[in-house]
Design brief:
The chain has a domain of about 150 residues: Immunoglobulin-like, CATH 2.60.40. Helix content is about 10%, strand content about 30%. The N terminus is likely disordered.
Length: about 220
Amino acid sequence: MKKKFLLSVLAFGMVMFGSIYTINAEDESTSTDATIAFTGGDTSPTSPVDPDNPDTPGTNPGTNMEGPLSLDYVPALAFGTHEITGNVATYDLTDLKPYIQVTDKRGTGKGWKVSVSMTTFTNGDSSSSFSGVLSFKNPEVKTTTGNTSTPPTASVATVTSGAGEQKLVGTNADNQGMGTWITRWYPTASATNNLNDAIQLTVNTGNATTDSYTATVNWIISNAP
């Protein structure tokens, strides 16, 4: 009987002890820093992407231009074979998916631009030559998924043989056009004969002989917009 009593008293004391000393704790917190730093990208060349889906690799050969600001891909411009008419004529590009690709890994947010110039057309032995006019219309800029940088601005441009550079695409302010961007010239709704009317060549065929002619198209990337 004594044993039972002592246990009862002990239990009662524990209840009393708990009721007197229980404290309702409040939430507390502290903090630390999460840090990360970046440097400019390396100078290794960037491979061309697919102009239809910039998230996937392309099949075109690149320029192998080193970065961190690089012009990764530029198109050759072929306008086919035509009869001499003796008049001024305009011809559509045969490539249906021409584009250029720029990658900016500098990390500075400074601007850039791509310009183009063209020489006169000459035949194989340079015995005949004439000027031409390249017209770039319907430009469209694209980038990879997740790139939130403000897009560069593409312009309608006309390039005359020997007349200097004309801007095709570039940034208008800091923190634009960072990462990889393509500018493409796809056919308009008015295109016919499976040709691309977004890039056209105008020449005076009266100055041509029955031969093949070539002009050099220079694509220039610059640090400033």
